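Hey team,

Filing this mostly as a record. A colleague (T.K.) asked me to run one chain through the structure pipeline before their review meeting, and I want the input and output archived in the tracker in case anyone asks later how it was produced. No errors, nothing strange. Just documentation.

Input sequence:
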Amino acid sequence: MSNENNAIHGFDVNLICDFFLNTERQGPGSPEVTLKALSFIDNLTDESLIADLGCGTGGQTMTLARHAPGRITGLDFFPGFIDRFNADARRLHLADRVKGVVGSMDALPFRAGELDLIWSEGAIYNIGFERGLNEWREYLKPGGYLAVSESVWFTDERPTEIHDFWVDAYPEIDTIPNKVAQIHRAGYLPVAAFVLPETCWTEHYFAPLAKARELFAAKYPGDSTAEGLMAFQRYEEELYRKYSEFYGYVFFIARKPNPRRTPCPGAMPCSGATPNPGATPNSGLTPGDGTRSRAADR
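Output structure:
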């Protein structure tokens, strides 16, 4: 997360982070989706440098570390997230090459052209999709990859209730083709895009929030602000269950051009290598097996 703003949906960021400290994930996703996105990355070695920006408590980072070579730095502005991140890295015996640091997306502690891969699951919105694309590109090596998940519209039109909710919450939400066009304009080669399955919301995000709310309510009994935050989260879940055919998350994978590398024919799909064995690759603008949204069938 970025500390550019001290409130989200009108709630203090520190209160939100305190709530999500009790969760493995701070947004929709799953280990399977993390590995599917990773299957399109073909440039990693033991010497690679990877940054997970807006890493939160690091659930997806630990999945990356168990399946990808290289050294990983997780960055988040909330110290509590980083404390848990580093504790989990030690518990999983990954601390020799996985480290969490406190920092901000808009002041990255990396050198220009240093990184082989920038990862960010459900967090680039904190700085803004286009701004993140443009500013983070500087830190990638030629041929380096960017992998981010982002909220999108599945349809050109949608009911007023969900349209107004999202435009107020995140004005940069847009359709998949428009997001891909933004990636291209920012100087990347689009490699792949796939829709996260609904289980990433229902099973891996909303279900764990129920237990987190119990812990949060016990910590802040009778606190009207805390109760308001929990009520908002329940409303967000209600909206998703009602309107999931109209919006969701998409994972976008892109590559910074390398002048010494022969470009892949066409803009998409192409990763420059066969995806990892066992993965279910999907490129272009349609959801892959097991990830098709209802909107894609309209």
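Quick notes for T.K.: The CA atoms of residues 151 and 249 lie 4 Å apart. The two ends are 34 Å apart (CA to CA).
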